[in-house]
Structure formats: C-alpha cells, structure tokens
Amino acid sequence: MSVTDVEPAALELHRATLSNGLRVLIAPDPTTPVVGVSVHVDVGFRSEPEGRTGFAHLFEHLMFQGSESLEKLAHFRHVQASGGVFNGSTHQDYTDYFEVLPGAALERALFLEADRLRAPKLTVENLRNQVDVVKEEIRLNVQNRPYGGFPWILLPPVLYDTFPNAHNGYGDFSELEQATLEDAASFFDTFYAPGNALLTIHGDVAEHGVDGVLALVERHFGDIPFRPTPQRPSFAEPVPGSERRQSVPDAHAPLPAMAIGYRVPDPTTEPDAYLAHAMLASVLTDGEAARLQRRLVHADGLVTDVSASNGLMGGPLDARDPDTFTITAVHPADVEPDRVLGAVDDELDRLAAQGPSAEELSRQSARWASALHREDDRVMFRMLGLGARELLYGRAELALELPERLAALRPEQIAGAAGRLRGAGRAVLLVEPAAQPDQEETP
Amino acid sequence: MTATQPRTRTAEEIGRTETGPRPLPALGRTRDVPLPDVTTATLPNGLRILAAHRPGVPMVEVLLRIPAAGPSATADPAYTAGMEVLVETMLTGTATRDRVGIDDELAAVGGELGVGVDPEWLQAGGSALASGLPVVLDVLADVLTGATHPDDEVARERGRLAERIAVARAQPRTVAREALQRKRFGDHPISSEMPTAEAVAGITAERVRELHADTVVPDGARLVLVGDIDPDTAIESVRARLGGWTGSHPARELSDAPAVVPGDLELVHRPGSVQSQLRLTAPGVVRDDPRYTAFQLANLVFGGYFSSRWMENIREDKGYTYGAHSSQEFVPGGAVLGVDTDVASDVTAAALLETRYELGRMAAVPPTPEEIESARRYAIGSLLISLDSQSALAGTLSVLDSVGLGVDWLRDRPARLEEVTVEQVADAACDFFAPTRFTGVIVGDADVIGPRLRALGGIAQEGRA
Predict the structure, then answer these.
(1) Which residue range or ranges hold the Peptidase M16 C-terminal domain (chain B) (predicted)?
(2) Do A361 and A264 share a structural domain?
(3) Tens digit of pLDDT for each residue in A136-170?
C-alpha cells in the first residue's frame, strides 16, 4: 500500500439552514466521548472600520462578557463547570467561538452560544476592562518580546496598499482606547446577524442523533430574529509589479530576521493553483531534505532557521482572496539579506525550470496526510477546520479532501507556482536588531 | 425603499429580548474515560515497552524517554551543552544514512522524529502513518545504536545553537524561567535547562560521541507506542530492532531536587521591559500523596483554570493581565507549584498585591462548595478531553509509568475526584496556598517597577537579566 492510498476519514456532513438564516453543519463522530460546538462569524479584521483597528478582535473579547441570561463570567464558569474548554480567535475574514465538552453537555453548549448570539450584554465597564486585557495581550505577544508580530502584523503593510489588507489586526492602542459602546452595538447589529454565521457541531452527539441535534439547535437558535446580512466587499487589490522593501527596528531581537511576502491565486476560483503554493512551501522548507533547508541552512549556512507557508496566519485555506505566501528566516548579523534573497530566487528558478521530483512530491504529500490526520485526532481542530472551510468556501469537505488534493498535484503545477512567485512583485521585510547598550553594561 | 441603512440598535436594546432570560439546560451523564488496555514488556537489555491500541486516525505515536542526568551532583554547563549538541546532531548521520536520507525515509511514511533533552530526560518522539511503524522503528534503532555525530554536522549545529540560544534568551519568559529555576533549585542540575553559547562552543564531536555512548542506553529507558496498531505485533517489532541495543551501565536518574524554601521575591532587572513576569513558587504535592486530589481541586479554584479566583480578579475585574495560571511541575522526589502571570509595568505592584491577597484568601476564606463542584466537573471533563488523542495518551502513559503508575490510575481518576470532600479541599487550600509558603522572582524594568514593589515588602536585592 502506498501511503497516499489511505482512505479519507469517513465523516458524514449534515447541513441545514434555519429560517433566520443561520447555517448549521453537523458532523457526528461516534469514536469520541467529547463534542465540539463552534460559531464562525463572517467578519474578521479585514472588515473593521478605519480608525478602529483591532476592533474585530476586541469585539471577540466582549462576546465572552455576558448575555441576557448570563452574568459577566458566567459563560466561562458554565463551560468549565460542565467539564469543557473554550476559546475564540479572530482571523482576516472570520471570527470563531468554540467549546469542547463531554458529550453530556451538548445542549448546554448550544444554549450558551445561542444566548450570546441573540442578546449579548455590552456594557461600558466590560468594554474598558477588555481594552485593558487586549492591551496586555498585545504587550505579551508583540511589544515585550523579540520578533513580536513577525510576520503577520509587519509584512502586510509592505505587500498591500489598502486599509483592509495592510492594517494591524491587533490594533493601535490609541484606537482601541477610543472604541465606544455605540461602535460595539453597531458592529454586532451589522455583522452578527444569524445569516452571517455558521454553527458547527462535531463529535459525540450521543442519543440525540442528527435529527435530535437539529431539533436542539432549532430550540435554542430558532427564535433569534432574522436581520439582513451585510454586503461583503471585495478586498482585491493589484499585485505589486516590483519588489518593495521596508526595515523595522526591533528592540528585543538579538539577530536580524527577514520575511518575503508574495501574492497567491484566489483559493475560490483557482483552488489547485492555490494548493500548489501550499505544496511549494513544503518542498521549500518542510524537513531536512527540503530545498531551502539544504541550501540556506546546511550548504551555505546563511540562516539559522527558515520556514515557508501559504497563508499569513500559519496555514492554507484560512482566508479568502487576496492571500499571502510567506518565507521567513532568522540569520546572523554578518549575512547580507541580499545573499539570502539571491539563494531563494535561485531555488525558485530551479523549481520553476525543472519542477520537483515525483518522489519529492510523494514524500511531502505523505507528510501532509499524516500532519492533517494528527490534527484531526483532536475534536477541536477538526471542528475548526470544517467550520472555517464551510464559512469561507462553502465546502467543509475541503478539510477532509485536503490530503488527497495535495497528493494529486503534479510536478508541473509546483513548477508553475514557483514561476508565478518569480514573475511578480513581492514584499521584503527586514527586522533589524536595535542597539540596547544598557543591556550590555554591568551595573 | 430609501438608500439609508436601518437604524442599528443600542447596546441596551441588543442585550434584552421580549421573552427575557432563559434557564440553563441540565447536563446529561458524562461517559467514562475510554482508555485502552496497555500491553507491557521489558527486554533483556532493560528497555521497557508499553503499547496500546487507539485507532481513530490511521497513525501511530512513538515516544522514547531515557533518564539522562549528568554525573555531577551540581549544575554542569559543559554537560548541558554537550547533551544539547548531542540531540541536535543525533539525526544527522549513521553508518548507512545521512541527514537527508533519514528525513527522506521518515517522510515516505508520513513520519516525523524529533529529539530533545532536559536535565532529567533525553526524549525521542515522533509519529507516522500506522503502516509506517516498522520504518520509524528502523530509523530510531539506527540512530540510537549507530549515530555517528559527523564532525562537520557538530560544527554547524554548534553555530546554529549559539544563535538559537541568543534568540531564546531574548524572550522574557526564558529569562524568567532561568531566574525561577535558580531561585528555587540553586545549583542542583535541574536548574540547568539551557546551555550557554560559550559552553556549546567548547563541545567537540569526539565529546558528543562519548556522551552518546554514556547516556543513550536501554536499561531504564521506556518506549511507548499508541495508535492504530496491534500491541503484541508492535512489541515484537521493537524487540527485533532494539533487542541488540546495549549499554555499559543503566541510565542515570536525576537526584532528588531540593525542597523550595519560602522567602523574599527576587527582582530581576530587564531594561526597557513594558511588561513584568511574576513567577511565584511553593512546594507542591506528589501524585501518591493522599491529599493530591484535594490539592488539584484547590489549585483549580485558585488559578488553575479560567474560572478561578485569581484570573477573575486580575484579568476580568482589574484588567491587569491577559492570562494568569497556577500549575504543578513534578520533579525528582517531589513537585513544585508555580503561579505565573505577565502584567504591564505600571500595574506590577498592584498585581503582586492582588496575588498575595488571593493566596491569603485560600487559607482565610476556604473554597465554597460551588467553587469546588465547578473545579470537580472541570477536572473530570478536561481529563476526558485531554486523553482524546494518541499523542496525549502516549505522553501521559510515559510519564505515569516513570513513577510506577499504570493506566488504572487514570481510569480511577474520575472516581477519586468525585469522592474528595469540601473539607479536604479547604484543608488543602490552607496547607498548600498559604502565602508564607512561597518565594519566586519578578522580571521587569526595575527602575520603573522597583519603588512600588519594595514598598510592599518581601522583595530581595535585585539581579540583572
């Protein structure tokens, strides 16, 4: 048996749409004793208004702060006192809310999600408190650590020109502080209409069965009134025609780093060309035998570490068009960035001309298959993968078909992807360690 | 129809419906933790094997852990550096495979293998499509018994390590971790988790090969296999490949770590920090202590999950932090409780004050029955969730086996959690969370945070990051 013959996980997907427009995806899995419930809302940081950077993420925090039936803190307490775990996250094009609990708590989870989608309690006190919490999150993940926000915050303003694509999704402190309760109310009314959301249930549905789950969904979500859904604008903008460069200082970084950003095909209209870039990223940097590992790390010793990814936030199929292919590297101070860029261009040229070997591709697709299986071994990740693909592309099946589709890619498609990167403009971001003389002195 | 948007509602209108608040649905009955039987075997060379059938995805997890303490009774930077270079070059060559060959062979079966080291263990772990288990075991056996640590690979990895160490030490969490380990364990080897670039530079290929022969030994090692496999066949497969693995002596186990001594917090200066790391610590409770389960629930009530007193105070009420967590680490001969949060410089003293207040409250105002019931349900449910993957199960089985506990201990966890009484948790809260048991470190810009912290008292002379 060759590894690419492994059957895709048998998972039945059941869909429904409530009369208020809420889409429902049910994927029972009898092999696990836990169940996941998620709500994907079709708004991410690309949709937040100018002057309110970081608002989509700030609003995500507010959705945990109580609702008509639940006091502040009650949501956390009820999920955890049911034996469950929870979180939420904000991406370019969507915001997700999720919990995973013992199957016995399924109805309670549906109640909790429905209550805040119907009537969240938005208060000035909670808004101010969560602005403080979000600022701590940004200090923790960006300001107080080396390479904070690299590359997801720092690269887009070099590659993109329009506000939706270029701005900082975590937000500027001054704009977060100016956020008002009216902003929050208007954001909720506009984007959190039931027709703008998807409810996913995956895992142990126990004695309910699919029909029983759907009846529970109708009971809890059915009376959320219909509201019109917002018109989703296009975020398209031209691909840059030449190379753009920008340097940023980093007070905490001990070594220089660089990120190279490219535009990729539209995942909706050209899915295979898009996925060829995901496979190209693997051919370049996944494993010791990958092209850039061998060239940059082992042969030339130009970089300490290198990685490539199709998708700005770490993985493919997580955003609509336009999406970003990134190569990132940390390198010693005495290595000129142009030497790294030159070597990357060489390897892309070689791949564009000759393509990868069939064996190289089959190894990388086996690696993808096992990585995806491993991710799917957790109810939370499989649920989030299904929900995100259903919301963004209308096809949760993409999450299940991904190993097969990657395995079916031919060398010439990877060559085409490499040639495409070489044929257009790109962004080069250089992170430069800022001198910190104080830290070198002894007291 | 006009072109104007419909008026959006106010926040107050949004938060209210005609039918009003609704009741919370009841819970059903939580299923038992579904745990497979574990088949065990010990080879004549001392290697212990645990194998379990856990399908779900067509994968297998492989986890080998070897006790790997240094020969010295105190922290030895040269040993730490040598072991770090050893693990970085373990997968770079054998008599029959080079770095790329090893990677290619694993990739062909969707496999990955990684090697790491800490003061207590050398660990080699990975995963592959279940059908690829023989290939993973072939490669693993080859590197364990035949890694050559080629001179040029050692030279290259020394250079990369120096750079990676520089990057790691620029992370505030690494600075705080190193300071905390020194504070609570002094110069016991357990405090030496990351080598210095200087010590790494002095490691030769010859020294690495000596260390490999000395530490990569089967007697005392433990290999766990979990996945879509037949346990007996898997054990035979290991026996065929690793039965001939030999060592001149048993693996060296780490000596008991010294007990945490209560005392002042050490303020560590990190110039230019906009945030401070608070790391408080106290002696913890071992798994076979009769008070362990009560302690676990008391820990959840204090800061072990989101719905805890400390998190609700300093995050959800005061907005001082993004996260606040208390948890236990097991160390040879015992356990240590850690209380961790990162907060903005200007609220560092305030956050410490609230932390001490909540610790004191654990003793003075015992957890309520409601608090305990919530913690109990969470502990049982999250156990179900945490064991619901092959990799998590493999890791848990390996750790438990190393302290002499089997899968039955896991099976009985829910029952033990159900049985703990409110009084037992209240006693554990008083005994283990009293502020007088703690010491620790605070890392931050001492020029900014120092004056207010010192005014609170209990702050020792500062060091530098």
Answers:
(1) 203-377
(2) yes
(3) 999 999 999 999 999 999 999 999 999 999 999 99
